[in-house]
Amino acid sequence: MAKTYDLLNMGRSSIDLYSNDVGTPFVNISSFAAYVGGSPTNISVGAHRLGLKTALLTAVGDDPVGDFILNFLNNEGVATQFIPRKVGHRSSAVVLGIEPPDKFPLVFYRDNCADIELTIDDVLASPITDCKVFQFAGTNLSKEPSRSATIFAAEVAKQAGAKVVLDVDFRPNQWHDVRAFGVTIRSLMRLVDVVIGTQDEINAAMLTSADQMQLTHSQVSDTKVAGDTEDAVQTMLKTGIEALVLKTGSQGARVYLPNGEVISAGGFPVDIYNILGAGDAFGGGFLYGYVNGWGWYKSARLGNACGAIVVTKHGCANFMPTMPEIEAFVQPYGGLE
Description:
By secondary structure, the chain is an alpha/beta fold. The protein has helices spanning 39-50, 64-76, 120-124, 146-159, 179-187, 199-205, 209-214, 229-237, 278-291, 296-310, 323-330, and strands at residues 5-10, 14-19, 32-37, 54-57, 60-61, 85-86, 92-96, 106-109, 131-137, 163-167, 194-198, 243-247, 252-256, 262-266. The protein has one domain: 3-Layer(aba) Sandwich (UDP-N-acetylmuramoyl-L-alanine:D-glutamate ligase). The strands form three sheets. It has an eight-stranded mixed sheet with strand order 4-1-9-10-11-12-13-14, sandwiched between helices. Strands 3-2-7-8 form a four-stranded mixed sheet. The protein has a two-stranded parallel ribbon with strand order 5-6.
């Protein structure tokens, strides 16, 4: 059956305030640029700019920041009619310092935030049965009612024939106990078709109960999670997913399949300006290829190209590339094939 939307993304949205004083320590920042962000929001914008028909299921407060987010998304052409206003809750915010090549201090303002208040009723009011792919972020699962709403959405989407894609999205400071992150992720893997994540995210998601018994909350409360990534990958593949997409930064990405095949898609060398948003740009590009049946390699190469372009920019959603920009970028590298 034909579906109205190629892609429905569910999860957080925010106003992103990014330092204009690039290279300056956070304490000396004098001004910020205002953009729109939040992982599923960025992915929805990125995929739409490439040509997919996307809808976003997030929530904003009844506040000017919510107006700012919705105005940007409406101007982009992302479907926003399924985004509720949560009276009494605030649209979330992110503040970022930029000190290339490897220092990007990030502060989340998500206390009483609107998008974590998404409910099962909000899911039922969305096109959850009318999309080809349903994508959600791991942060959705950090608190109720968003946790149960997201699991419900994955169940309904899968029953309706959509592919379910999990962006692991490990944000330790969003969990009351980060050891709960892996438990929660593993509890819904039966509903997931494709997983996208970094090495640290896959390690965090697949920590065994024995591993967690040996660790304290503080020892795993960083985004850097030690572990045997290959073992974690193989454990995740046994959950029944069709593919695990491992983002490997400047090296590109590897796609692991249950039959043992590993597909390596090389990256594109660029000078890093701001790494925030690169993974979401990858997600938008990869999902464009996935929806259009491009195959694992070419889809990952498109994702790599999107990520490479965004790391040279100041922000996230506002700088997602279009297909003509991608074609011009990859031409010197021999294209995407």
